[in-house]
Amino acid sequence: MSDRATDPTSERAGDEKPRLKEYEGEGITVTFEPRRCLHAAECVHGLPEVFDLSRRPWVLPDAAEPARVAEVVRRCPSGALQYHHRPEDAVAEPPDSPTTVRRNPAGQLVVRGDLVVTGAYGDRHETRAMLCGCGASGNQPYCDHSGPCAEPEDDDVPEKR
Ligand code: SF4
Ligand code: FES
User: Fold this and answer.
1) Fewest Cβ atoms nearer than 10 Å: which of 19, 112, 127, 141?
2) Pocket residues for ligand 1 (CB within 6 Å)?
3) Which controlled-vocabulary keywords does the entry list (predicted)?
């Protein structure tokens, strides 16, 4: 079940929807957009009991306190991971303020804040995104590791799950 009315990734009505995997828990539901996942770091290292690439499903939202799960999801720089609570206590992820943009050494644009990202799915309200800085991505405006930003350890990321 999802709560698109308060989900920061919700799209403009009528637009094609991105493919999301949803992992529903008692106190929090985690969604995962495989095409947006870029590196195996924050989720699996931050909360290995919840995010475990060797397990199916690889996300178990009830394996930790909902607030802790939300805190680790917010570390996901690409925005591949999002969360929402049950509709009755729905709280959208608070955006960082002020909004920040930085170009990292790999050439990606790392953006956090109160965002409207326009792409193939229309205008998406988001709080975190890694945008393509090289022009090679097939998932514009997001980076998809098609360009020189790709890293050898990409085979370990959950987008392969
Ligand atoms: S979902 Fe992907 S991009 Fe996000 S923290 Fe986990 S490995 Fe990194
Ligand atoms: S910066 Fe990663 S594909 Fe362009």
Assistant:
1) 19
2) 37-43, 76, 78, 80-81, 157-158
3) 2Fe-2S, Iron, Iron-sulfur, Metal-binding
In a domain, 63, yes or no: yes
What range defines the domain where residue 70 resides? 21-151
Per residue in 60-103, pLDDT (tens digit) is: 999 999 999 999 999 999 999 999 986 655 557 899 999 999 99
Closest atom of ligand 2 relative to the 131 alpha carbon: 1
The reply to whether 86 falls in a domain is yes
| % of the chain exceeding 90 in pLDDT | 71
Pocket test for ligand 2, best of 142, 143, 151, 157 (most atoms within 8 A of CB): 143
Q: Whose alpha carbon is nearest atom 2 of ligand 1?
A: 37
Q: Confirm whether 80 is domain-assigned.
A: yes
**What is the tally of structural domains in the chain?**
1
